[in-house]
Amino acid sequence: MIIAVDGLAASGKSTVAKAVAKKMSYEYMDTGAMYRALTWKALEKKVDIFDEEALVRLANLTRIYFSNGGKVFVDGVDVTEEIRSPRVSNAVSIVSRVPDVRRIMVKQQRAAAKDKNVVVEGRDIGTVVFPEAEVKIFLTAVPRERARRRKVELEGKGHRMDVTTVEREIISRDRIDSTRPAGPLLKAPDAHVIDTTDKDVEQVVEEVLKLAHLAPPTAE
Questions:
Q1: How far is the C-alpha of 187 from the C-alpha of 1, rounded, in Å?
Q2: N or C, where is the chain less crowded by C-beta within 10 Å?
Q3: Is residue 204 part of a domain?
Q4: What is the pTM for the complete model shown?
């Protein structure tokens, strides 16, 4: 079974998808981390992120993979923390909107999930990557609450941010992601929308489990 978790920036996708995967003993795949990883490499290598041909060449030469513990590696380097930095967050929408970059990533994502039970999170999972997913979820929340969450996350990693600035960046990213020609951020027609604004993680996870018609495995 494939459970697709799509949604807006900072709507809780990663937290919810990880928790659902753990409860169901499924594998977890963060497709957004793949685009962040490529963005990180482009910035490190000083590749012009507005040069689409250069980004496609870079994507073809880059190996991105996950460890069993959820860490993200680029060509053997652990970049789990680096890809969540503000500089990557502010650039990833530019990199991820390139059609040929997305085609390369989608091919890798489909190969990684082949014949597995997996919870996959991203922005085009239920519409482009796995339109046949048995369960499709779309998470949303009001911009100010999403900005508050992202601010807390960033400050926990030592980045001082103003909530108004974070909110502005989140709204901008939503606009870029939802209007790009390849793999835009869209709710699949058959996706279940969950507004996480006033819900805690446990409540959202339980909703997803019910929608999947599966209970968490019994602990032994």
A1: 20
A2: C
A3: yes
A4: 0.85
